[in-house]
Specification:
The protein is an all-alpha fold. Helix content is about 80%, strand content about 0%.
Length: about 400
């Protein structure tokens, strides 16, 4: 019997899930808007890639800090505080767009703000999920989290493209602000859960150092995070270039938004499969990473919009298998009092993306977007194979 949405029966988790989903819509909406406006403003593949670098950069630079905060402070209040800060900022971005005052540096800064909010969401909210659903439903809940993020990507990109075409960029930012506001309201319904395992007797710096020590001594965690680092750096770093590829194949703002949304639809399908059938996590994780990098080459080798759309979606189905299992693998590989910091380490591994995006952007300026995607993903497949020969522990994870 399928139990796809079983964890939503846990008390209050549906409010936390709704809040996270709405934040995902908002986050991906701002990400789409930043890349779209930057491409329209500059026409530079490197500048388009840099919007992604700024958005994902905080995961690399502040992930462990966010994890330490999650293990020490009230998680719900931390989330409400940061989400509330983002609402007026997004409204301001919309106003600047309406008066044609947006500049490239403003887009970069907006990506940075969203990235900081993402760190807090990943470390605090996902640790709070475990507090609410418990170990028996954590696998299902975290698979649904991937579904939430993927559907947020699809809807945020789709809404961004549609509202731009109908009303303009400014109104698209204001639509994001509405989603953020509802996210805060939903989060307010979630009770605060005492952080009973908080290392209150330790200094903040020592709390972070212990997170790094856990990584060096935990082979399973090291194996999981290594796969994440490689897959995100080499596969997912291509997504801002969909703006460039979509324009090359004759896309309108709406159809380019649909192209970006297709990656979210694919990840939704992959994550729902994991939530429904609960495959061996390690196998799904590794297979998803390998097949995603292989299939995305199709995006770069066709000149027809329909085939670009198909390969973007089908490669993302595989990436959905990968994404639906990575948080559960990370949290279940450490002790209870390390979950927040483990998620911080995961966010730092995912933070390989801004580095990959920047390098891919430089390469795209030299050899073109399509050729750079092919080079990057073939390299990623080889790098992942070598890493797993060295650290194969993730294969045994169930």
């Amino acid at each position: 019997m399928l139990k796809t949405f079983e964890s939503l029966q846990a008390p209050y988790y549906r409010y936390l899930f709704l809040s996270g989903w709405l934040f995902s819509v908002s986050r991906w909406g701002v990400g789409f808007l930043g890349a779209f406006v930057m491409n329209d403003m500059t026409g530079s593949p490197l500048y388009v890639q840099l919007t992604g670098t700024f958005m994902w950069g905080p995961l690399l630079l502040t992930g462990l800090v966010g994890g330490a905060i999650s293990d020490r402070l009230d998680r719900k209040r931390t989330l409400v505080f940061f989400f509330l800060l983002m609402v007026p900022f997004t409204i301001l971005m919309g106003a600047l767009a309406l008066f044609d005052l947006l500049k490239p540096w403003m887009l970069f800064f907006s990506m940075l703000v969203v990235g900081v909010g993402w760190v807090i969401d990943m470390t605090a909210r996902r640790a709070l999920i475990y507090d609410l659903v418990g170990p028996s439903q954590i696998n299902n809940a975290l698979a649904l989290e991937m579904f939430s993020s993927a559907s947020g990507l699809a809807l945020g990109s789709f809404i961004g493209g549609a509202v731009i075409e109908l009303l303009g960029v400014g109104y698209a930012y204001w639509a994001v602000a509405i989603f953020l506001t509802i996210s805060v309201i939903s989060m307010a319904k979630v009770p605060s859960v005492p952080v009973t395992s908080s290392p209150t007797g330790e200094g903040f710096f020592r709390t972070m150092v212990q997170g790094l020590r856990e990584l060096s001594g935990n082979r399973l965690l090291f194996s999981v995070l290594g796969v994440t680092l490689i897959a995100d750096a080499f596969f997912y770093s291509y997504t801002p270039l969909l703006q460039v590829i979509g324009e090359r194949v004759g896309g309108t703002p709406f159809s380019i938004g649909l192209l970006a949304a297709s990656t979210g639809v694919g990840m939704m399908l992959g994550s729902l499969w994991v939530a429904s059938f609960t495959p061996p996590r390690g196998i799904a994780y590794v297979w998803g990473a390998f097949s995603a990098m292989a299939l995305v080459v199709g995006v770069a080798t066709t000149d027809e919009y329909g085939w670009v759309l198909f390969f973007a979606m089908i490669s993302s189905v595989s990436f959905g298998l990968f994404g639906a299992t990575q948080s559960a693998l990370t949290m279940t590989s450490v002790r209870e009092n390390m979950r927040g910091r483990a998620m911080g380490l995961l966010s730092m591994a995912i933070g390989s993306l801004p580095i990959g995006m920047y390098i891919l952007g430089l390469l795209a300026e030299i050899v073109g977007a399509e050729q750079s995607i092919i080079i990057f993903n073939v390299t990623g497949i080889l790098a992942l194979a070598v890493f797993l020969v060295w650290r194969p522990q993730v294969f045994r994870a169930r």
